[in-house]
Amino acid sequence: MTDSSSPTSGFHFPAEWEPQSAILLAWPHPGTDWADRLAGVEDTYIALVAAITRFQDAVVCVADENVQAYARARLASARVDMERVRFVEVPYDDTWLRDSGPITLRGPEGFRLLDFRFTGWGGKFEAGLDDRLVEALSEGGVFNDGKRQDIDFALEGGAIETDGEGTLLTTYRCLAERHPDASREELSRRLGGWLAQDRVLWLDHGYLEGDDTDAHIDTLARFAAADAIVYQACDDATDSHYDELQAMAKELAALRTRDGAPYRLFPLPWPEPVLDEGRRLAASYANFLIINGAVLMPAYGDPADAGAAAVLAEAFPGREIVPVPCRPLIWQNGSLHCITMQLPAGALA
């Protein structure tokens, strides 16, 4: 079902740490931009699905039956728990489901699947199939009690963070690039209305070289609780990111919780630069994924990996920290959180 105008009052936008039914992702194949480096990225996907299925289900989008057969064989040979893997055949341009997948709200009578416009990050890449992904999944019966709400407004899931209590965290750079004629106040009002949020916190600083999302929040700063934020820090004064990430850290320190207290802040260590034919790649530890009972952490084969795991363990007490090798992902300028989308408990049919 599709609803283009229903208000979201009475709905709840769950925080990522709330109970989930599954993680949604799409398998890379030769028809995607991963074609040139498919072997390496497949290894990352196998490690990711193996990690997810230790704790909950994975819903894997596949382009056709051949891709499904191949993915099933690769996962099974890696001894992944296939009872927790569900394949869904659906067309897609690429595999960044954080930005093309559904943003799911829980309501009194079921779920609302918010289907914003996906424009390939402001028209940088072809996105026609990805823009229709939520509709295709909905029509395919993937969701339980889910009414799709088609919203004619460009927004990617990686651009927003919620604490599950009505506070949204985002970056002005990204939203202003998508909507240059909209004021900050108008953007706050519209985002708050659609996403059932009554506070929008904006960051004016923060970026990563190699990031083509125009500063998605999920590469920079993430809620760990309603009063806690984990963020990507930079302590190397010689690095080109230093001034901008230091300024972002000061912005975060100035933010206040709903109760007026400063947030508990958890700075993540800064990895060594990762270069690809001279191009700096966007390696961020802030691009972690919270699942039931665990936090999956992007690992880059860097000495800072261990320090990042320690910070996340402190920020998420009681959850297992599971490193996933993500160096192949940053070749396409994203990481672990970018290729996944969580489905809240009860949302999966």
UniProtKB/TrEMBL annotation:
GO terms for biological process: putrescine biosynthetic process. Keywords: Hydrolase. Pfam families: PAD_porph. InterPro entries: Peptidyl-Arg-deiminase_porph. GO terms for molecular function: agmatine deiminase activity; protein-arginine deiminase activity. The keyword Hydrolase applies. This is Agmatine/peptidylarginine deiminase.
